[in-house]
Amino acid sequence: MPEMDIITSLKQMQEYVLKRRGAGRTIALVPTMGFLHEGHAALLREGRKRADILILTIFINPTQFGIGEDLGKYPRNMERDKVIALDAGVDIIFAPTASEMYPEGYQTYVNLDELSHPLCGTGRPGHFRGVATVVSKLFNILQPNVAFFGEKDYQQLAIIRRLTADLNIPVEIVGMPTVRESDGLAMSSRNSYLSAEERTAALCLSRALSLAADCYRSGELSVQVLRDKVMKLLDNEAYAAVEYVELCDRETLESVEQASDETLMALAVRIGKTRLIDNMILGKGFPCKERC
Ligand code: AMP
Question: Among 214, 221, 240, 227, which Cα is nearest to 266's?
Fold first, then answer.
C-alpha cells in the first residue's frame, strides 16, 4: 500500500511549494484540525478536482482555543487521517508543530472587526483572531490558488472570505455544503465526545433548523416567532443548553427583524459538555432527507 507523505517542517514545506509553483503547478488547500470525517473528505475530493497539487493541513491551532476549552483533549488519529487523505487523492499532508507555527517571540495576529463579534465570537472571545491568524499564515506558507472551507463553520467561512479580500491574498475561497449523518446531525470531529444518549439528544440541532425551515416555508417571517419555536424545541431536550439561536444577514451577520431568503439561522448548543454548532440559509431550506 502506498504511504502518505507528511511534512512537519515549515522550511521543507515552503521548498515543496516554491518548487511546484515555479514549475507552473496549481495548488489546492484544505486546512483542518484532523480526526477526519466525510465532511473533510468532501472538501478534499473537490480540491482534488480543482488543482494539480492537493495539500491537506492538520494542525490543532492553539490560538483559536480559549481557556477551559478542549485543546488538550481534541481528538486525534493520524493513522486513520492518512488513509482518508490517500483515498481522497491528497499529495501531501502538512502537519506543523505549534512551536514552528508560533515560535518564541511570536506577536502578530489578524483581527477582524464586525464579523468576529456576533454568534460564536460572543461566547468564544479570541477564537476568530486565532482562526484568521492561522489561515493567513497557511496562505502565506502554502500559496494556494484555491482553498476549501465548510459552510458548517459559516462565520469562519465569512471571516476567511473577508480577510482574503481585505488583505489582497490571491486565493479563491470555495465554501462547501455541510455534510450530515443520515439522521441529520452535522458531521464534526467533536461528535466523538458524545455518549449514546447525547448523540440522540444532539439531533435537536438539526430538528430545530428543520422546524424553522418548515415554518419559514409556510410563510412565517417574524424572527421572534421563528426563534421562539426553535427555543421551545431545544428547551425540551434535557441534555441541551442553548448558547445562541440567531437569525442574521448571511453577508454581514448582523441581526435581522424580518426573515428572508438571505437570512442565516445559526445555532450553538451544548450537549452535555460538548459544544455543537449548525446553521442554514432560510432561502435554501434544510437539506436533511429524513424527517428531522
Ligand atoms: P475542522 O477540522 O473541524 O477545523 O474543519 C476543517 C474544515 O472542514 C473546515 O473548513 C470546516 O468547516 C470543514 N468541515 C467540518 N465539518 C464539516 C461538515 N460536516 N461538512 C462540511 N465541511 C465540514
Answer: 227
Amino acid type, 101: M
Q: If you measure from the C-alpha of residue 188 to the centroid of ligand 1, how many angstroms do you get, rounded to a whole number?
A: 7
> Is residue 278 within a helix (H) or strand (E), and if so which, with residue range?
strand 274-281
Q: Which three cell numbers stand for residue 273?
A: 459538555
Number of neighbouring beta carbons within 10 Å of residue 48: 16
- Residues with catalytic roles: 40
Q: Which CATH superfamily is domain 5-176 in?
A: HUPs (3.40.50.620)
Task: Give pLDDT tens digits for 207-234.
Answer: 999 999 999 999 999 999 999 999 999 9
CATH class for the domain made up of 189-280: alpha beta
For residue 282, give the C-alpha cell.
432560510
Distance from residue 3's CA to the centre of ligand 1 (Å): 24
Per the structure block, which three cell numbers stand in for 223?
Answer: 424572527
The residues with which 175 forms a beta bridge, in sequence order, are: 149
